[in-house]
Amino acid sequence: MIIFTLNGKTVETDAPATERLLDLIRDEFELIGTKEGCGEGECGACSVFVNNQLQNSCLIPIGSIDGADVKTIEGIMETEQFKILDECYSIAGGVQCGYCIPGMVMASAALLSENPHPSEVDIREGISGNLCRCTGYNMIVDAINLAAKKGDGLWQKK
């Protein structure tokens, strides 16, 4: 039995310890905001927070999350930080097809939690583990920059 916290709730699973966290999140807990892009940890579509650290869930065997705190995009959507990111992504036109956006939002939140006043270089580096095939990077950078300004004071790591 693997027991962990998922978006603030204690959950348990009897799934095999080698099952990927991505599959568990999507299949057993039906949290489909976390996407599978590459399945190799290169695109960031499956990003989640594990103990407040941004991780690619496609690379994490669930045996390693026993006792951990896991947050998906659905959990982040309940925060004030998300509301600001959502508004800023919309204003800047940072959402195109939407496939990469959950991972981009997770990377944005991680970046702003570590660096509430990032430069453009910091932003580009902060999202460098996330691929956008619609080439919306400039608009995503603008969205994060705007969120940093609008959310000043909200980005302390929790």
Quick overview of this protein structure:
With 158 residues, the protein is of the alpha+beta class.
**Number of β-strand runs:** 5
CATH class of the largest domain: Alpha Beta
Secondary-structure arrangement, i.e. CATH architecture of the largest domain: Roll
Q: How many distinct folded domains? A: 2
What is the H level of CATH, i.e. the homologous superfamily of the largest domain? Beta-grasp domain
User: Mean pLDDT, rounded to whole units?
Assistant: 92
CATH topology of the largest domain, which one?
Ubiquitin-like (UB roll)
| Contiguous runs where pLDDT drops below 50 for at least 5 residues | none
* Global outline: globular
Number of helices: 6
Strand arrangement, major sheet: 2-1-5-3-4
Largest sheet: 5 strands, mixed
Helix fraction? 25-40%
What share of the residues does DSSP label as strand, in percent? 5-15%
Which structural class best describes the helix and strand composition?
alpha+beta
**H and E string:** EEHEEEHHHHH
The value of Rg in angstroms is 15 Å
> How far apart lie the N and C ends?
27 Å
What are the salient characteristics of this protein?
158 residues, globular, 6 helices, five-stranded mixed β-sheet, Ubiquitin-like (UB roll), DNA polymerase, domain 1
